[in-house]
Amino acid sequence: MALFRSVATVGGFTLVSRVLGFVRDLLIAAVLGTGPAADAFFVAFRLPNLFRRLFAEGAFNAAFIPSFARRLEGEGIASAKRLAEEVQSVWFTGLLAMTLAAELAMPAVVFALAVGFADDPDRWPLAVDYSRITFPYLMLMSLTALLGGVLNALNRFAAAAAAPIALNVCMIAAMVVAAPYMETAGHALAWGVTIGGVVQVAIVAWDCHRAGVTLKPRVPRLTPGVRRVLRLMGPGAVGAGVLQVNILVGTIIASFLPTGAVSYLYYADRLYQLPLGVIGIAIGTALLPQLSREVRAGRLDGALQMKNRAIEIAMLLTLPAAVALVTIPGEIVLALFQRGAFVAADVEATAYAVAAFATGLPAYVLIKVLSPGFWAREDTRTPVIYAAVAVAANILLSLILVFPLGHVGIALATALAAWLNAGLLAVKLRALDFLAADSRLLRRLPRILLASAIMALGLLAGAWFVKTAFLSSLEPVRLAALAGLCAGGLALYAAAAHVTGALDLGELRRALTRRPTNPAAAS
User: Fold this and answer.
1) Where are the domains of the chain?
2) For 424-434, what is each residue's pLDDT tens digit?
């Protein structure tokens, strides 16, 4: 199935990006630790990322890709390209105006995101400065999302998936090369973010040119196609970005906690975002354009089968990742982050947040898999209703759990809200006869759970066996222990999955070697 290969392409490049992201975060932890500059930078970095995930990658992709696929399937590549150019002109104009307004009103914008910083003389001015530097990243990444959406609809996933690598390279270079010459290391990091956005736009624009779909500038006009995309984007902004809204709520509440809480949640977020990005985002990115074409062509049986395989892939890869993060969070955080300004107390606080976030990892991924079932039908309203319910639940749970559990309560509330959202999406799709587990999925899910449980026991035994290595003062020894533990757990899971029948290696090999078609070429 082409879906397997597309997921592997997106997931592979995303994995490289996330690994570089860990290298970046290791440097940030060593240079900034969990002090005022770290809290300020993470708020500034989260600000454009929040809007990017809500309006660029989330709502925009949910609205634009099905519309582009409709044009491509029904009218050909020339008509689809014209729609992309019309959307690009209006999109860029609106983003430019938004960026200029935000730059002028940045203190108010930061106040809305981290009101607890307002009376902090150390964190407040840094957060405003850093945010002014990083905010243009939103505009750059939104253009990247548009061009990447065009490429994805044409079954070209590599460039858009590889582009985020540039961000991490630029941020690492900023810390290593530019930081000594700037006011603070946070200022260098902020500039690295914006420069990384410029490079990402260049990467996807070049691949569009190679695909023969160079988008030319047009005078901004609200054509029927543009109005349709914008209309679909409204509810999609919340439906696709509920996880980011929940994280925003956590950031606001955490800003009232003692210094370090925002940083603990950030580092924990980075850990569970690795499997979420490699698996959830990869599947959602690959599934939406293909599902949209199946729906547009009236092949509903094919769409149902595609969703079942997407859920199967998601759970096959997500459940063991969640189990590992819940089983050995302390060992993971210690090996990856404990150095420089990141001390033992920070390890423990971050590890608890990692475990709490990880309990919701399967739900986060399922949301990415289930949401395209609505978007492909150009229904962005239904997900927003469930998203609003989940956001309300997250706020209530965060306010309740933060008192007994502190920052860990915020992470747990986010996980519980994600499960609520995923459950509502699944029930509704089932009621619409657009989600029905086939015999293969029902047969394999329990076996995936069993293989994950076997791996958990192996990880616990392995962690006990090499516990002295994790207590070593030598960083290479700790990293080697973690690498060995993860490799052993992965091998054990693969063996258990094969023996129990949760995974068919031959089928997977055939799917990954099958080449996809290019709709543009077919047109």
Assistant:
1) 2-436, 446-513
2) 999 999 998 88
